[in-house]
């Protein structure tokens, strides 16, 4: 069973541009356009004061270049325009959650190490920022309370990640109900013997809430225990939410990934087929 992927996002007009996997040639530009809509509830500026970040035009600057595990860090590409085509990536990938809004971003790391954040503006030369993550775990000064997902509905949006040494399925899960803007949607995922599973546990909300409410999301990477490529075949998929287990299957071919999923409430999948 892979380790649970647990992330939290602020809410308003934002894009989850990294989704914990590196940019590859097979990733479609339409993913970024769709995520602008999907994460239109993210308010990054409410969580981090990007106005405090200064530097030379074209420079990628961060609030801190040494952080703890799970400590939020703000990023800003100085001088970029709102209409620019800006793309982000993190290396090594798989241990971060990067939420971006135009030329600004917030990043969290779940593993200690040395990372490089890279951003390009209109296809020009990349700007980079190097961040070191210590072994210490960040503890937010805000108190959090647990809220059940009773009466909520989850929509899963599938994507396909592919690189030279690995390929796997990624699901972006978003709630229908509203929660405090910096809440965390807690989910555990598993991939054992080609059986895919997700268990949505609850929502962890700050108390008191001072940012505002909106849907929240979590990114689930079905990575392999060892580097490998997604095989063709039909694989079971089960998702648990509020005591109900929803079941279906994933059909993988050389060109497409399809989801046999007949539910119209509880847990939805859209779209039900993507290109591989």
What does this structure look like?
With 276 residues, the chain is mainly beta. Helix content is 4%, strand content 49%. The two termini are 24 Å apart.
Radius of gyration: 18 Å
The total of helices stands at 1
Q: Percentage of helical residues?
A: under 10%
Please tally the β strands and state the result.
22
Domain module tally: 2
Instruction: Give the SSE order as H and E letters.
Output: EHEEEEEEEEEEEEEEEEEEEEE
Q: Could you tell me the mean pLDDT? A: 81
Q: Major sheet: size, sense and barrel closure?
A: 8 strands, mixed
Strand content: over 45%
Low-confidence stretches: 1-51
Query: Overall 3D geometry?
Result: globular
Alpha-carbon distance between the two ends: 24 Å
Structural class: mainly beta
List key phrases describing it.
Immunoglobulin-like, mainly beta, disordered N terminus, 8-stranded mixed beta sheet, 276 residues, globular, 2 domains, 4-stranded antiparallel beta sheet
Secondary-structure map:
Elements: E1 7-8, H1 29-38, E2 60-62, E3 66-69, E4 73-77, E5 86-91, E6 96-101, E7 104-109, E8 113-121, E9 127-137, E10 143-147, E11 154-162, E12 167-175, E13 179-180, E14 184-192, E15 195-207, E16 213-214, E17 217-221, E18 233-241, E19 244-252, E20 256-260, E21 267-269, E22 273-275
Parallel strand pairs: 3-9, 11-21, 15-18
Antiparallel strand pairs: 1-14, 2-4, 4-7, 5-8, 6-7, 8-9, 10-15, 11-12, 12-17, 13-16, 14-15, 18-19, 19-20, 20-22
Offer a concise description of the structure:
By secondary structure, the protein is mostly beta strands. The protein has one helix spanning about 30-40, and strands at about 5-10, 60, 65-70, 75, 85-90, 95-100, 105-110, 115-120, 125-135, 145, 155-160, 165-175, 180, 185-190, 195-205, 215, 215-220, 235-240, 245-250, 255-260, 265-270, 275.
